[in-house]
Sequence to fold (350 residues):
Amino acid sequence: MDRQENIPILNNDICFHILKFLPANYLHYHGRFVCNVWANIIRDPSFINSHLLLSNPGIVMQANAELWHACFFDKIQGNLRMKRLAPVFEGVVTESCDGVMLLCDRFYKCKNIRLLNPVTMQEVHLPVLPNPHDSNKLSIGRVRCTGRFKVVCTVGSMEVSYHWLVLTVGEDTSWRRVDITIDKDIKESDINDGPQSVGEIIFWGLGKKESTPGISIYALDLRDETTHKICVPDRDLGVTVLDGALFRNKIVHDVGNDYMELELLNDFHQGEWVKVMRFRTGEIWHEFFSPVVGLLNLQVLIFLAQPRPEDLYQLVFIAYNVKTGERSTIASGVRVAFPIVVHCNSLVSL
Fold:
């Protein structure tokens, strides 16, 4: 009897299920070369999307325009580990969406903008912006029904009317302008938060420090490129993206204890916020304190803290388990000069 006849053969559905739990790097550099069956599964768009949903998120930190290291959460072992990205590449990582990084040649007045999947190393250079902009004015999202990525630049100041610049990757050869109707009292806005991406929505916070009670968040729906306004009444509320959703957070003082409250933007069309969590901060309170990453459906939060006011760039990353109250320092003395980006490795194509 031929020896090969004794080799068990798994059907495609079982292979599909097993492979989607393997790391993207292994699938791209090794798995797709095992056999034709594996290669066909790994390049299947439905497999790529299923694999993406199981990908582990990580924090990409940079200093002086060089990738320093990434902190990835290992769901199987249940701990946090520091891991350097490989290969290392040049540029400022501004944002990440579905495993694709948005990179600029420099932080201020960047000219060269490109997209890169650091696993497959597929790269797309984007058209030059009409005027150079800082990299923190750029963001990226993806339209689910088409699979297309859209890159957005926020533009506006006392001299220039507020608007979006939008580019659909693979379709547009130049940037398209989408105008915004801004409230009269914030036309000379001194609160101009960089855009934040949540799937198919790009959020942009604007406001006045003195004349307005809070800030206004303008949401660009990438599906139809319409703009919607969301009011955040309290200027002291922090607004951040956690676990693929937009949250606002604040510290509440109650009977001698400090608590953090997290509210989820449940419906951006109606501006509806829902309180989802309240927990005691205790010892993790520092001079500067905000959640930057939410993992495992917000069971674990990663906080960025500044121990002392003079340590502007010497930061501490703290992992906090909301359910058990356990906390641990995962990195200290971190010098971060550029945005902290949440990224997950994937096989998504541009």
